[in-house]
Protein backbone atom coordinates (compact mmCIF):
# COMPACT_ATOMS: atom_id res chain seq x y z
CA UNK A 1 0.00 0.00 0.00
CA UNK A 2 2.70 2.42 1.06
CA UNK A 3 4.72 1.61 -2.03
CA UNK A 4 1.74 2.25 -4.25
CA UNK A 5 1.21 5.73 -2.85
CA UNK A 6 4.89 6.48 -3.23
CA UNK A 7 4.71 5.43 -6.82
CA UNK A 8 1.74 7.44 -7.74
CA UNK A 9 3.29 10.41 -6.01
CA UNK A 10 6.26 10.26 -8.32
CA UNK A 11 4.17 9.45 -11.34
CA UNK A 12 1.52 12.03 -10.73
CA UNK A 13 1.50 14.55 -13.58
CA UNK A 14 0.72 17.44 -11.28
CA UNK A 15 3.05 17.76 -8.29
CA UNK A 16 0.54 19.93 -6.44
CA UNK A 17 -2.13 17.23 -6.51
CA UNK A 18 0.27 14.77 -4.89
CA UNK A 19 1.25 17.36 -2.31
CA UNK A 20 -2.40 17.96 -1.50
CA UNK A 21 -2.93 14.25 -0.84
CA UNK A 22 0.16 14.11 1.37
CA UNK A 23 -0.92 17.19 3.30
CA UNK A 24 -4.36 15.86 4.11
CA UNK A 25 -2.77 12.98 5.98
CA UNK A 26 -0.80 15.21 8.33
CA UNK A 27 -2.76 16.32 11.40
CA UNK A 28 -0.50 19.31 12.04
CA UNK A 29 -1.04 20.59 8.51
CA UNK A 30 -4.81 20.16 8.87
CA UNK A 31 -4.89 22.08 12.17
CA UNK A 32 -2.74 24.83 10.64
CA UNK A 33 -5.14 25.05 7.70
CA UNK A 34 -8.12 25.34 10.05
CA UNK A 35 -6.44 28.21 11.93
CA UNK A 36 -5.73 29.98 8.65
CA UNK A 37 -9.29 29.51 7.41
CA UNK A 38 -10.53 31.00 10.69
CA UNK A 39 -8.39 34.13 10.32
CA UNK A 40 -9.25 34.45 6.63
CA UNK A 41 -12.95 34.38 7.50
CA UNK A 42 -12.22 37.05 10.11
CA UNK A 43 -10.59 39.20 7.45
CA UNK A 44 -13.45 38.73 4.99
CA UNK A 45 -16.37 39.03 7.39
CA UNK A 46 -15.32 40.64 10.68
CA UNK A 47 -18.94 41.14 11.71
CA UNK A 48 -19.39 37.41 12.13
CA UNK A 49 -17.10 37.56 15.15
CA UNK A 50 -18.00 40.81 16.85
CA UNK A 51 -20.81 43.30 16.61
CA UNK A 52 -18.94 46.03 18.44
CA UNK A 53 -17.25 48.60 16.24
CA UNK A 54 -13.55 49.15 16.92
CA UNK A 55 -14.14 52.90 16.71
CA UNK A 56 -16.84 53.18 19.37
CA UNK A 57 -14.61 53.73 22.36
CA UNK A 58 -15.68 54.87 25.79
CA UNK A 59 -12.77 56.30 27.73
CA UNK A 60 -14.62 55.72 31.02
CA UNK A 61 -14.39 51.99 30.34
CA UNK A 62 -10.65 51.98 29.68
CA UNK A 63 -8.57 48.89 30.50
CA UNK A 64 -11.45 46.65 31.51
CA UNK A 65 -10.27 43.10 32.17
CA UNK A 66 -11.43 40.32 29.83
CA UNK A 67 -15.01 39.27 30.62
CA UNK A 68 -14.86 36.23 28.33
CA UNK A 69 -17.95 34.85 26.64
CA UNK A 70 -20.61 36.51 28.81
CA UNK A 71 -19.69 40.21 28.95
CA UNK A 72 -19.95 43.12 26.59
CA UNK A 73 -16.16 43.10 26.14
CA UNK A 74 -15.07 39.44 25.84
CA UNK A 75 -11.38 40.36 25.68
CA UNK A 76 -11.63 43.56 27.71
CA UNK A 77 -10.90 47.08 26.51
CA UNK A 78 -7.68 48.94 25.73
CA UNK A 79 -6.25 52.15 27.13
CA UNK A 80 -8.75 54.28 25.21
CA UNK A 81 -11.73 52.12 26.08
CA UNK A 82 -11.97 50.45 22.67
CA UNK A 83 -13.08 46.83 22.60
CA UNK A 84 -9.99 44.63 22.22
CA UNK A 85 -11.82 41.84 20.40
CA UNK A 86 -13.32 44.26 17.88
CA UNK A 87 -9.94 45.91 17.22
CA UNK A 88 -8.36 42.50 16.89
CA UNK A 89 -10.95 41.18 14.45
CA UNK A 90 -10.91 44.33 12.33
CA UNK A 91 -7.11 44.38 12.37
CA UNK A 92 -6.86 41.04 10.57
CA UNK A 93 -7.88 42.42 7.22
CA UNK A 94 -5.04 44.91 6.64
CA UNK A 95 -2.43 42.47 7.96
CA UNK A 96 -3.55 39.52 5.85
CA UNK A 97 -4.37 41.58 2.77
CA UNK A 98 -0.94 43.19 2.87
CA UNK A 99 0.78 39.82 3.18
CA UNK A 100 -1.23 38.23 0.37
CA UNK A 101 -0.83 41.21 -1.98
CA UNK A 102 2.90 41.48 -1.32
CA UNK A 103 3.59 37.80 -1.80
CA UNK A 104 1.28 37.60 -4.84
CA UNK A 105 2.84 40.50 -6.72
CA UNK A 106 6.38 39.60 -5.68
CA UNK A 107 5.71 36.06 -6.92
CA UNK A 108 4.54 37.24 -10.33
CA UNK A 109 7.46 39.64 -10.72
CA UNK A 110 10.03 37.12 -9.48
CA UNK A 111 8.72 34.22 -11.55
CA UNK A 112 8.57 36.31 -14.73
CA UNK A 113 12.09 37.68 -14.32
CA UNK A 114 13.51 34.31 -13.29
CA UNK A 115 11.88 32.60 -16.24
CA UNK A 116 13.16 35.15 -18.75
CA UNK A 117 16.66 35.14 -17.25
CA UNK A 118 16.96 31.36 -17.16
CA UNK A 119 15.47 30.84 -20.60
CA UNK A 120 17.20 33.51 -22.66
CA UNK A 121 20.44 33.83 -20.65
CA UNK A 122 22.83 36.35 -22.24
CA UNK A 123 22.23 39.98 -21.41
CA UNK A 124 18.75 39.38 -19.98
CA UNK A 125 20.24 37.02 -17.43
CA UNK A 126 23.08 39.43 -16.67
CA UNK A 127 20.62 42.24 -16.06
CA UNK A 128 18.30 40.18 -13.85
CA UNK A 129 21.10 38.53 -11.90
CA UNK A 130 22.81 41.83 -11.14
CA UNK A 131 19.50 43.38 -10.08
CA UNK A 132 18.83 40.42 -7.78
CA UNK A 133 22.30 40.80 -6.32
CA UNK A 134 21.86 44.53 -5.68
CA UNK A 135 18.47 44.11 -4.03
CA UNK A 136 19.65 41.16 -1.95
CA UNK A 137 22.38 43.12 -0.21
CA UNK A 138 20.01 45.88 0.87
CA UNK A 139 18.41 44.46 4.00
CA UNK A 140 14.61 44.59 3.67
CA UNK A 141 14.00 46.24 6.99
CA UNK A 142 16.58 48.97 6.38
CA UNK A 143 15.11 49.85 2.99
CA UNK A 144 11.61 49.82 4.41
CA UNK A 145 12.64 52.11 7.26
CA UNK A 146 14.30 54.53 4.85
CA UNK A 147 11.49 54.79 2.33
CA UNK A 148 8.57 54.65 4.73
CA UNK A 149 10.04 57.31 6.97
CA UNK A 150 10.40 59.53 3.92
CA UNK A 151 6.72 59.02 3.16
CA UNK A 152 5.59 59.28 6.77
CA UNK A 153 3.55 62.44 6.33
CA UNK A 154 1.69 61.53 3.14
CA UNK A 155 -2.07 61.25 3.34
CA UNK A 156 -3.38 58.51 1.09
CA UNK A 157 -6.92 58.22 2.41
CA UNK A 158 -8.53 55.47 4.45
CA UNK A 159 -9.68 52.89 1.87
CA UNK A 160 -8.88 49.20 2.27
CA UNK A 161 -6.00 49.38 -0.19
CA UNK A 162 -4.88 52.91 0.66
CA UNK A 163 -3.87 52.01 4.20
CA UNK A 164 -1.51 49.27 3.02
CA UNK A 165 -0.31 50.83 -0.23
CA UNK A 166 3.05 52.20 0.91
CA UNK A 167 4.26 49.25 2.96
CA UNK A 168 3.03 46.95 0.18
CA UNK A 169 5.11 48.70 -2.49
CA UNK A 170 8.23 48.72 -0.36
CA UNK A 171 7.89 45.10 0.73
CA UNK A 172 7.24 43.95 -2.86
CA UNK A 173 10.27 45.87 -4.05
CA UNK A 174 12.49 43.97 -1.64
CA UNK A 175 10.97 40.50 -1.55
CA UNK A 176 10.76 39.26 -5.18
CA UNK A 177 14.37 38.06 -5.39
CA UNK A 178 14.07 34.56 -3.89
CA UNK A 179 11.36 33.60 -6.41
CA UNK A 180 13.46 34.82 -9.32
CA UNK A 181 16.43 32.80 -8.06
CA UNK A 182 14.48 29.58 -7.54
CA UNK A 183 12.74 29.81 -10.91
CA UNK A 184 15.95 30.68 -12.74
CA UNK A 185 17.73 27.69 -11.21
CA UNK A 186 14.99 25.24 -12.11
CA UNK A 187 14.68 26.67 -15.64
CA UNK A 188 18.40 26.12 -16.14
CA UNK A 189 17.96 22.54 -14.97
CA UNK A 190 14.98 21.84 -17.19
CA UNK A 191 15.43 23.70 -20.42
CA UNK A 192 17.83 21.28 -22.08
CA UNK A 193 15.95 18.11 -21.13
CA UNK A 194 14.82 15.91 -23.98
CA UNK A 195 11.11 16.66 -23.76
CA UNK A 196 11.77 20.38 -24.00
CA UNK A 197 14.02 19.87 -27.01
CA UNK A 198 11.27 17.71 -28.51
CA UNK A 199 8.70 20.42 -27.98
CA UNK A 200 11.02 22.93 -29.57
CA UNK A 201 11.69 20.80 -32.62
CA UNK A 202 7.94 20.36 -33.02
CA UNK A 203 7.81 24.11 -33.49
CA UNK A 204 6.49 25.24 -30.11
CA UNK A 205 6.99 28.94 -29.51
CA UNK A 206 9.29 30.25 -26.78
CA UNK A 207 6.33 31.41 -24.75
CA UNK A 208 4.63 28.03 -24.97
CA UNK A 209 7.78 26.17 -23.97
CA UNK A 210 8.35 28.49 -21.03
CA UNK A 211 4.82 28.35 -19.69
CA UNK A 212 3.80 24.77 -20.51
CA UNK A 213 7.02 22.81 -20.26
CA UNK A 214 9.57 24.67 -18.17
CA UNK A 215 7.55 26.55 -15.59
CA UNK A 216 5.67 23.55 -14.10
CA UNK A 217 9.01 22.21 -12.86
CA UNK A 218 9.59 25.35 -10.86
CA UNK A 219 6.18 25.23 -9.19
CA UNK A 220 7.27 22.81 -6.46
CA UNK A 221 10.15 24.67 -4.82
CA UNK A 222 8.39 28.03 -5.17
CA UNK A 223 5.13 26.79 -3.64
CA UNK A 224 7.05 25.38 -0.69
CA UNK A 225 8.38 28.80 0.30
CA UNK A 226 5.08 30.66 -0.11
CA UNK A 227 3.56 30.06 3.36
CA UNK A 228 6.81 31.01 5.07
CA UNK A 229 7.00 34.16 2.94
CA UNK A 230 3.46 35.16 3.92
CA UNK A 231 4.40 34.57 7.58
CA UNK A 232 7.50 36.69 7.12
CA UNK A 233 5.55 39.59 5.63
CA UNK A 234 3.00 39.43 8.46
CA UNK A 235 5.74 39.79 11.04
CA UNK A 236 7.47 42.58 9.09
CA UNK A 237 4.14 44.38 8.97
CA UNK A 238 3.87 44.09 12.75
CA UNK A 239 7.33 45.60 13.15
CA UNK A 240 6.64 48.46 10.75
CA UNK A 241 3.26 49.21 12.31
CA UNK A 242 4.88 49.11 15.74
CA UNK A 243 7.16 51.89 14.53
CA UNK A 244 4.18 53.79 13.16
CA UNK A 245 5.21 53.47 9.51
CA UNK A 246 3.28 50.36 8.46
CA UNK A 247 -0.49 50.12 8.13
CA UNK A 248 -1.90 53.58 8.71
CA UNK A 249 -4.44 54.73 11.22
CA UNK A 250 -7.46 54.91 11.30
CA UNK A 251 -7.09 51.29 10.17
CA UNK A 252 -5.85 49.03 12.94
CA UNK A 253 -3.49 46.14 12.66
CA UNK A 254 -1.95 43.72 15.09
CA UNK A 255 1.31 45.65 15.03
CA UNK A 256 -0.43 48.88 16.05
CA UNK A 257 -2.28 47.04 18.81
CA UNK A 258 0.92 45.46 20.09
CA UNK A 259 2.53 48.89 20.19
CA UNK A 260 -0.32 50.31 22.23
CA UNK A 261 -0.55 47.28 24.47
CA UNK A 262 3.15 47.12 25.30
CA UNK A 263 2.88 50.16 27.58
CA UNK A 264 0.19 48.63 29.75
CA UNK A 265 1.65 45.24 30.65
CA UNK A 266 3.17 46.48 33.88
CA UNK A 267 0.23 48.87 34.31
CA UNK A 268 -2.11 46.00 35.11
CA UNK A 269 -3.67 45.36 31.70
CA UNK A 270 -1.54 42.72 29.97
CA UNK A 271 -4.49 41.50 27.88
CA UNK A 272 -4.16 44.52 25.55
CA UNK A 273 -0.75 43.22 24.49
CA UNK A 274 -1.35 39.50 24.80
CA UNK A 275 -4.49 39.29 22.63
CA UNK A 276 -2.90 40.58 19.38
CA UNK A 277 0.38 38.84 20.21
CA UNK A 278 -1.32 35.45 20.55
CA UNK A 279 -3.13 35.96 17.24
CA UNK A 280 0.08 36.98 15.50
CA UNK A 281 1.95 33.95 16.80
CA UNK A 282 -0.96 31.62 15.95
CA UNK A 283 -1.06 32.86 12.35
CA UNK A 284 2.69 32.73 11.87
CA UNK A 285 2.92 29.30 13.52
CA UNK A 286 0.14 27.95 11.30
CA UNK A 287 1.88 29.27 8.20
CA UNK A 288 5.26 27.92 9.23
CA UNK A 289 3.82 24.47 10.00
CA UNK A 290 2.04 24.46 6.66
CA UNK A 291 5.23 25.54 4.91
CA UNK A 292 7.18 22.79 6.63
CA UNK A 293 4.61 20.18 5.60
CA UNK A 294 4.56 21.53 2.05
CA UNK A 295 8.33 21.38 1.83
CA UNK A 296 8.19 17.69 2.70
CA UNK A 297 5.30 16.97 0.39
CA UNK A 298 6.85 18.70 -2.60
CA UNK A 299 10.41 17.49 -2.23
CA UNK A 300 10.64 14.05 -3.83
CA UNK A 301 14.01 13.44 -2.19
CA UNK A 302 12.43 13.62 1.26
CA UNK A 303 9.42 11.50 0.29
CA UNK A 304 11.38 8.30 0.53
CA UNK B 1 43.72 32.92 -5.81
CA UNK B 2 44.89 36.54 -5.98
CA UNK B 3 43.11 36.87 -9.29
CA UNK B 4 39.92 35.46 -7.82
CA UNK B 5 40.06 37.92 -4.91
CA UNK B 6 40.80 40.85 -7.21
CA UNK B 7 37.90 39.96 -9.47
CA UNK B 8 35.55 39.51 -6.53
CA UNK B 9 36.59 42.86 -5.05
CA UNK B 10 36.01 44.62 -8.36
CA UNK B 11 32.61 43.00 -8.69
CA UNK B 12 31.79 44.00 -5.12
CA UNK B 13 32.73 47.60 -5.81
CA UNK B 14 30.35 47.57 -8.78
CA UNK B 15 27.54 46.15 -6.67
CA UNK B 16 28.21 48.73 -3.99
CA UNK B 17 27.97 51.56 -6.50
CA UNK B 18 24.70 50.17 -7.85
CA UNK B 19 23.31 49.73 -4.33
CA UNK B 20 24.14 53.34 -3.48
CA UNK B 21 22.48 54.41 -6.70
CA UNK B 22 19.33 52.43 -5.92
CA UNK B 23 19.16 53.93 -2.43
CA UNK B 24 19.70 57.38 -3.92
CA UNK B 25 16.98 56.83 -6.53
CA UNK B 26 14.49 55.65 -3.92
CA UNK B 27 15.22 58.62 -1.69
CA UNK B 28 15.01 61.03 -4.61
CA UNK B 29 11.70 59.67 -5.84
CA UNK B 30 10.33 59.83 -2.31
CA UNK B 31 11.41 63.44 -1.91
CA UNK B 32 10.05 64.39 -5.32
CA UNK B 33 6.68 62.81 -4.63
CA UNK B 34 6.35 63.70 -1.00
CA UNK B 35 7.88 67.11 -0.67
CA UNK B 36 10.87 68.07 1.30
CA UNK B 37 12.09 66.26 4.40
CA UNK B 38 13.70 69.54 5.47
CA UNK B 39 10.28 70.46 6.77
CA UNK B 40 10.67 67.77 9.43
CA UNK B 41 13.46 69.83 10.94
CA UNK B 42 10.85 72.26 12.18
CA UNK B 43 8.44 69.62 13.45
CA UNK B 44 5.04 71.20 13.95
CA UNK B 45 6.32 74.75 13.87
CA UNK B 46 5.62 76.84 10.77
CA UNK B 47 8.87 77.84 9.07
CA UNK B 48 9.47 80.75 6.74
CA UNK B 49 10.65 79.88 3.20
CA UNK B 50 14.05 81.37 4.04
CA UNK B 51 14.45 79.05 7.02
CA UNK B 52 13.45 76.03 4.94
CA UNK B 53 15.91 77.08 2.24
CA UNK B 54 18.71 77.33 4.80
CA UNK B 55 17.99 73.85 6.11
CA UNK B 56 17.75 72.48 2.57
CA UNK B 57 21.15 73.86 1.79
CA UNK B 58 22.65 72.32 4.91
CA UNK B 59 21.35 68.85 4.06
CA UNK B 60 22.21 69.11 0.37
CA UNK B 61 18.59 69.17 -0.74
CA UNK B 62 18.69 72.56 -2.42
CA UNK B 63 19.20 71.21 -5.94
CA UNK B 64 16.20 72.09 -8.14
CA UNK B 65 16.03 68.49 -9.42
CA UNK B 66 14.38 67.46 -6.14
CA UNK B 67 11.31 69.36 -7.30
CA UNK B 68 11.14 67.63 -10.71
CA UNK B 69 9.56 64.18 -10.52
CA UNK B 70 11.36 61.73 -12.80
CA UNK B 71 14.69 63.50 -12.65
CA UNK B 72 17.30 61.02 -11.35
CA UNK B 73 19.29 63.84 -9.70
CA UNK B 74 22.70 62.64 -10.85
CA UNK B 75 24.42 65.86 -9.75
CA UNK B 76 23.57 65.50 -6.04
CA UNK B 77 24.36 61.76 -6.31
CA UNK B 78 27.90 62.46 -7.49
CA UNK B 79 28.25 65.07 -4.77
CA UNK B 80 27.06 62.62 -2.13
CA UNK B 81 29.44 59.90 -3.37
CA UNK B 82 32.25 62.43 -3.03
CA UNK B 83 31.19 63.11 0.55
CA UNK B 84 31.03 59.40 1.36
CA UNK B 85 34.50 58.94 -0.11
CA UNK B 86 35.80 61.59 2.28
CA UNK B 87 34.13 59.77 5.19
CA UNK B 88 31.41 62.39 5.52
CA UNK B 89 28.07 60.67 6.12
CA UNK B 90 26.11 63.86 6.63
CA UNK B 91 24.60 65.14 9.86
CA UNK B 92 21.48 64.42 11.85
CA UNK B 93 18.75 66.98 12.45
CA UNK B 94 20.60 68.50 15.40
CA UNK B 95 23.75 68.93 13.32
CA UNK B 96 25.78 66.13 14.90
CA UNK B 97 28.02 64.23 12.44
CA UNK B 98 26.58 60.82 11.52
CA UNK B 99 30.13 59.43 11.47
CA UNK B 100 30.46 60.57 15.08
CA UNK B 101 27.26 58.85 16.14
CA UNK B 102 28.30 55.68 14.32
CA UNK B 103 31.67 55.70 16.07
CA UNK B 104 29.93 55.76 19.43
CA UNK B 105 27.24 53.23 18.54
CA UNK B 106 29.11 50.61 16.50
CA UNK B 107 30.90 48.88 19.42
CA UNK B 108 27.58 47.94 21.01
CA UNK B 109 26.32 46.50 17.73
CA UNK B 110 29.52 44.48 17.44
CA UNK B 111 28.97 43.15 20.96
CA UNK B 112 25.44 42.16 20.01
CA UNK B 113 26.67 40.38 16.88
CA UNK B 114 29.29 38.46 18.85
CA UNK B 115 26.60 37.09 21.15
CA UNK B 116 24.33 36.34 18.17
CA UNK B 117 26.96 34.44 16.20
CA UNK B 118 28.02 32.40 19.22
CA UNK B 119 24.37 31.51 19.86
CA UNK B 120 23.83 30.53 16.21
CA UNK B 121 26.89 28.32 16.11
CA UNK B 122 26.32 26.75 19.52
CA UNK B 123 22.64 25.93 18.94
CA UNK B 124 23.07 25.06 15.27
CA UNK B 125 26.10 22.81 15.68
CA UNK B 126 24.87 21.00 18.81
CA UNK B 127 21.23 20.46 17.85
CA UNK B 128 21.99 19.92 14.15
CA UNK B 129 24.71 17.37 14.89
CA UNK B 130 22.51 15.49 17.35
CA UNK B 131 19.64 15.42 14.85
CA UNK B 132 21.90 14.14 12.07
CA UNK B 133 23.71 11.59 14.25
CA UNK B 134 20.49 9.99 15.46
CA UNK B 135 18.41 10.56 12.36
CA UNK B 136 14.78 9.51 12.66
CA UNK B 137 14.94 9.13 16.45
CA UNK B 138 12.67 10.89 18.91
CA UNK B 139 15.44 13.44 19.45
CA UNK B 140 15.58 14.21 15.74
CA UNK B 141 11.84 14.80 15.61
CA UNK B 142 11.96 16.89 18.78
CA UNK B 143 14.71 19.08 17.34
CA UNK B 144 12.77 19.48 14.14
CA UNK B 145 9.67 20.51 16.07
CA UNK B 146 11.81 22.97 18.04
CA UNK B 147 13.12 24.56 14.86
CA UNK B 148 9.58 24.96 13.50
CA UNK B 149 8.55 26.59 16.78
CA UNK B 150 11.56 28.90 16.67
CA UNK B 151 10.53 29.98 13.18
CA UNK B 152 7.03 30.72 14.42
CA UNK B 153 8.25 33.28 16.96
CA UNK B 154 9.61 36.25 15.04
CA UNK B 155 12.36 38.08 16.92
CA UNK B 156 9.97 41.00 17.31
CA UNK B 157 7.49 38.89 19.28
CA UNK B 158 10.21 37.25 21.38
CA UNK B 159 11.63 40.60 22.38
CA UNK B 160 8.27 42.21 23.11
CA UNK B 161 7.34 39.32 25.39
CA UNK B 162 10.77 39.36 27.01
CA UNK B 163 10.96 43.09 27.54
CA UNK B 164 7.43 43.81 28.65
CA UNK B 165 6.36 40.55 30.30
CA UNK B 166 9.36 38.57 31.50
CA UNK B 167 12.22 40.97 32.15
CA UNK B 168 10.76 43.10 34.92
CA UNK B 169 9.75 40.29 37.29
CA UNK B 170 12.94 38.39 36.46
CA UNK B 171 15.02 41.46 37.22
CA UNK B 172 13.23 41.98 40.54
CA UNK B 173 13.60 38.32 41.44
CA UNK B 174 17.33 38.28 40.65
CA UNK B 175 17.87 41.44 42.68
CA UNK B 176 16.23 39.83 45.68
CA UNK B 177 18.03 36.53 45.25
CA UNK B 178 21.53 37.61 44.26
CA UNK B 179 21.69 41.17 45.59
CA UNK B 180 21.82 44.54 43.86
CA UNK B 181 25.44 44.44 42.78
CA UNK B 182 25.71 40.93 41.39
CA UNK B 183 25.62 40.07 37.67
CA UNK B 184 22.14 38.52 37.23
CA UNK B 185 20.16 41.77 37.74
CA UNK B 186 22.18 43.30 34.91
CA UNK B 187 21.53 40.35 32.62
CA UNK B 188 17.81 40.78 33.02
CA UNK B 189 17.63 44.56 32.82
CA UNK B 190 14.80 45.47 30.44
CA UNK B 191 16.94 48.17 28.89
CA UNK B 192 20.55 48.82 27.97
CA UNK B 193 23.06 50.17 30.48
CA UNK B 194 26.13 51.82 28.91
CA UNK B 195 28.11 51.13 32.09
CA UNK B 196 27.68 47.35 31.64
CA UNK B 197 27.46 46.88 27.86
CA UNK B 198 28.27 43.16 27.76
CA UNK B 199 25.93 42.11 30.55
CA UNK B 200 22.94 44.04 29.24
CA UNK B 201 23.49 42.96 25.64
CA UNK B 202 23.73 39.27 26.53
CA UNK B 203 20.07 38.28 26.80
CA UNK B 204 18.82 40.32 23.80
CA UNK B 205 21.68 38.85 21.77
CA UNK B 206 20.79 35.31 22.78
CA UNK B 207 17.15 35.93 21.86
CA UNK B 208 18.10 37.35 18.47
CA UNK B 209 20.45 34.43 17.90
CA UNK B 210 17.74 32.00 18.96
CA UNK B 211 15.31 33.49 16.45
CA UNK B 212 17.77 32.91 13.61
CA UNK B 213 19.05 29.54 14.76
CA UNK B 214 16.37 27.40 13.11
CA UNK B 215 17.95 27.86 9.69
CA UNK B 216 21.31 26.85 11.15
CA UNK B 217 19.96 23.72 12.78
CA UNK B 218 18.43 22.62 9.48
CA UNK B 219 21.56 23.47 7.53
CA UNK B 220 23.90 21.63 9.89
CA UNK B 221 21.61 18.61 9.91
CA UNK B 222 21.32 18.51 6.13
CA UNK B 223 25.02 18.94 5.46
CA UNK B 224 26.02 16.37 8.08
CA UNK B 225 23.52 13.85 6.73
CA UNK B 226 25.19 14.30 3.36
CA UNK B 227 28.56 13.64 4.97
CA UNK B 228 27.31 10.51 6.77
CA UNK B 229 26.23 9.11 3.43
CA UNK B 230 29.53 10.07 1.78
CA UNK B 231 32.15 7.61 0.61
CA UNK B 232 34.92 9.13 2.70
CA UNK B 233 32.96 8.34 5.85
CA UNK B 234 32.36 4.77 4.73
CA UNK B 235 36.08 4.43 4.05
CA UNK B 236 36.94 5.90 7.44
CA UNK B 237 34.60 3.47 9.14
CA UNK B 238 35.79 0.46 7.17
CA UNK B 239 39.41 1.08 8.05
CA UNK B 240 38.36 0.71 11.66
CA UNK B 241 38.35 4.25 12.99
CA UNK B 242 36.35 4.71 16.15
CA UNK B 243 32.91 6.28 15.74
CA UNK B 244 33.73 9.46 17.71
CA UNK B 245 36.77 10.01 15.52
CA UNK B 246 34.73 9.53 12.36
CA UNK B 247 32.10 11.96 13.58
CA UNK B 248 34.53 14.68 14.66
CA UNK B 249 37.13 14.46 11.90
CA UNK B 250 35.15 13.35 8.89
CA UNK B 251 31.58 14.46 9.41
CA UNK B 252 31.57 17.60 11.54
CA UNK B 253 34.71 19.03 10.02
CA UNK B 254 33.70 18.34 6.46
CA UNK B 255 30.25 19.78 6.83
CA UNK B 256 31.35 22.94 8.58
CA UNK B 257 32.20 24.81 5.37
CA UNK B 258 28.61 25.66 4.42
CA UNK B 259 27.89 26.51 8.05
CA UNK B 260 30.70 29.06 8.26
CA UNK B 261 29.58 30.72 5.06
CA UNK B 262 25.95 30.69 6.17
CA UNK B 263 26.98 32.98 9.03
CA UNK B 264 27.92 35.54 6.40
CA UNK B 265 24.91 34.96 4.21
CA UNK B 266 22.41 35.41 7.05
CA UNK B 267 24.16 38.64 7.93
CA UNK B 268 21.75 40.84 5.98
CA UNK B 269 18.80 39.24 7.72
CA UNK B 270 20.45 39.48 11.12
CA UNK B 271 21.08 43.16 10.52
CA UNK B 272 17.33 43.70 10.27
CA UNK B 273 16.89 41.69 13.46
CA UNK B 274 19.57 43.77 15.14
CA UNK B 275 17.68 46.95 14.32
CA UNK B 276 14.55 45.54 15.96
CA UNK B 277 16.48 44.21 18.95
CA UNK B 278 18.41 47.38 19.59
CA UNK B 279 15.36 49.53 19.03
CA UNK B 280 13.15 47.59 21.42
CA UNK B 281 15.79 47.10 24.10
CA UNK B 282 17.12 50.67 23.87
CA UNK B 283 20.60 49.44 23.04
CA UNK B 284 22.73 52.33 21.89
CA UNK B 285 23.95 50.65 18.70
CA UNK B 286 23.59 51.35 15.00
CA UNK B 287 20.16 49.73 14.92
CA UNK B 288 18.99 51.57 18.00
CA UNK B 289 20.08 54.88 16.51
CA UNK B 290 18.28 54.02 13.26
CA UNK B 291 15.12 53.04 15.15
CA UNK B 292 15.11 56.34 17.02
CA UNK B 293 15.87 58.24 13.82
CA UNK B 294 12.78 56.72 12.18
CA UNK B 295 10.68 57.67 15.19
CA UNK B 296 12.00 61.24 15.10
CA UNK B 297 11.62 61.55 11.33
CA UNK B 298 15.35 62.26 11.00
CA UNK B 299 15.83 61.41 7.32
CA UNK B 300 19.47 62.49 7.07
CA UNK B 301 20.45 60.13 9.87
CA UNK B 302 18.35 57.27 8.45
CA UNK B 303 19.96 57.63 5.03
CA UNK B 304 23.48 57.81 6.45
CA UNK B 305 23.09 54.72 8.60
CA UNK B 306 21.25 52.67 5.98
CA UNK B 307 24.00 53.45 3.45
CA UNK B 308 26.71 52.50 5.91
CA UNK B 309 25.03 49.25 7.00
CA UNK B 310 24.41 48.27 3.38
CA UNK B 311 28.08 48.89 2.61
CA UNK B 312 29.02 46.65 5.52
CA UNK B 313 26.69 43.97 4.13
CA UNK B 314 28.40 44.10 0.74
CA UNK B 315 31.81 43.82 2.39
CA UNK B 316 30.65 40.85 4.47
CA UNK B 317 29.37 39.11 1.33
CA UNK B 318 32.72 39.60 -0.38
CA UNK B 319 34.51 38.28 2.70
CA UNK B 320 32.21 35.24 2.70
CA UNK B 321 32.95 34.47 -0.93
CA UNK B 322 36.68 34.74 -0.33
CA UNK B 323 36.46 32.57 2.79
CA UNK B 324 34.47 30.04 0.80
CA UNK B 325 37.14 29.98 -1.89
CA UNK B 326 39.85 29.52 0.71
CA UNK B 327 37.99 26.66 2.38
CA UNK B 328 36.79 24.91 -0.73
CA UNK B 329 39.27 24.59 -3.61
CA UNK B 330 36.49 23.58 -6.01
CA UNK B 331 35.22 27.16 -6.01
CA UNK B 332 38.47 28.98 -6.69
CA UNK B 333 39.67 26.50 -9.32
CA UNK B 334 36.28 26.27 -11.00
CA UNK B 335 36.03 27.94 -14.36
CA UNK B 336 32.30 28.28 -14.47
CA UNK B 337 31.90 31.74 -13.01
TrEMBL record, chain B:
The keyword Transmembrane helix applies. The chain crosses the membrane at residues 12-33, 110-131, 143-165, 195-217, 259-281, 301-327. It is found in: Cell membrane. It comes from the Bacteria. The keyword Oxidoreductase does not apply. Residues 106-324 form the ABC transmembrane type-1 domain. It is a multi-pass membrane protein. Keywords: Cell membrane, Membrane, Transmembrane, Transmembrane helix, Transport. It holds the Pfam family BPD_transp_1. Belongs to the binding-protein-dependent transport system permease family. This is ABC transporter permease.
